[in-house]
Q: What sequence folds into this?
């Protein structure tokens, strides 16, 4: 287990597991309609519009830290970097969540988010 992370997997392993799970759900008869609809919703919600995709991803990082969803933190940190956000922008988005979520949001920002930032930062340089 990596120091600072309270999970059995690294952020990259979690990202890959989450993506693989979504793909398998979109292919399974029992879940393909709902999973496909969810993926279409994400595509529509995160498309460029009045608010940029980067800004939407930064909002998502804050919501993920506030709601303490480790997979959401990992995924949206990656997507924020992919959309052109900097480490400082992502950190500031998470700190806004602390204003609403207090200690728990800070704990997830200082562990899961920090490890995700470290893991994915060099992917987009």
A:
């Amino acid at each position: 287990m990596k120091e600072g992370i309270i999970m059995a997997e690294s952020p990259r392993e979690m990202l890959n597991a989450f993506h693989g799970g979504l793909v398998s759900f979109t292919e399974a008869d029992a879940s393909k309609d709902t999973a496909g609809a969810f993926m279409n919703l994400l595509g529509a919600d995160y498309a460029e519009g009045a608010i940029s995709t980067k800004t939407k991803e930064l909002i998502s990082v804050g919501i993920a830290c506030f709601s303490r969803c480790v997979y959401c933190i990992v995924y949206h940190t990656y997507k924020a970097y992919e959309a052109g956000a900097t480490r400082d922008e992502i950190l500031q988005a998470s700190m806004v969540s602390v204003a609403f979520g207090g200690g728990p949001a800070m704990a997830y920002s200082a562990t899961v988010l920090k490890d995700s930032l470290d893991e994915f930062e060099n992917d987009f340089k």
Q: What stands out?
A: The domain at 11-124 is CATH 1.20.1290.10 (AhpD-like). Helices lie at 11-27, 32-45, 53-67, 70-82, 87-120.
